[in-house]
Amino acid sequence: MRRSHRALRGIALAALAALTLALGAACGDDDGAAAPGDGATGATAADLLPDLSGDGFSLVETGRVPGAAESQDAHVAIYARQGAVSSARVEVNMHPAAEAATDQFGAISEALKNPPPDLFGPNATQADNQAVFQGDQSRSYVTTKPDGDGNLVYTDAYRFGRAVVIVYLISNDPKAAAETRKDIAEKISAKAK
After folding, report:
1. CB 155 within 8 A of CB 168
2. Could you read off the pLDDT of 85-115 as tens digits, one per residue?
3. Could you tell me the pTM of the whole model?
4. Distance between CA atoms of 26 and 58, rounded to whole angstroms?
5. Has residue 173 been placed in a domain?
6. Does any domain span residue 34?
7. Residue 56 belongs to what domain range?
8. Cα dihedral sign, 19-15-55-140
9. How many domains does the chain have?
10. Cα–Cα distances in Å, from 122 out to 45, 84, 85, 129?
11. How many CB atoms within 10 Å of residue 36?
């Protein structure tokens, strides 16, 4: 399981670089006021992080996304457990308006489709994957080849109103991964309403 935590930390650093670029391009000079009807009114990124303890996960780390601008409302949580789904990383970026979230979702979902070389291990690439939940916008990917332990990295990007959410999951069981991915998305969606 230690290896999975290291893999998630590597994913975190590379994803942070892509995310920071996408956020910089998408956020603009917004005044920070939420637009009416944008969902998650009054919620913060931290408020949308799911509680996965009932699913057997332990919270390993949580806090602001490292490197996020002072004005960015961006939080991350890393979870771990024994079993077929060993690790999950959830990043939530709350925007002042749904339009900014839509822009960031477009940028980040493309960046995740074509990740930097070696983001998910030596020569790993991602392919489109079946979405297990539909947010206001959704994109899903999976690494094309398993690692030495048979694990794949499942990546889901969602927009829920003003929130852009990225979920990474490490698993060696596609069925268990799909169930966990759906459960995580449902929990976040319920909080985003």
Report:
1. yes
2. 999 999 999 999 999 999 999 999 888 887 7
3. 0.82
4. 33
5. yes
6. no
7. 2-29+39-192
8. positive
9. 1
10. 32, 22, 21, 20
11. 7
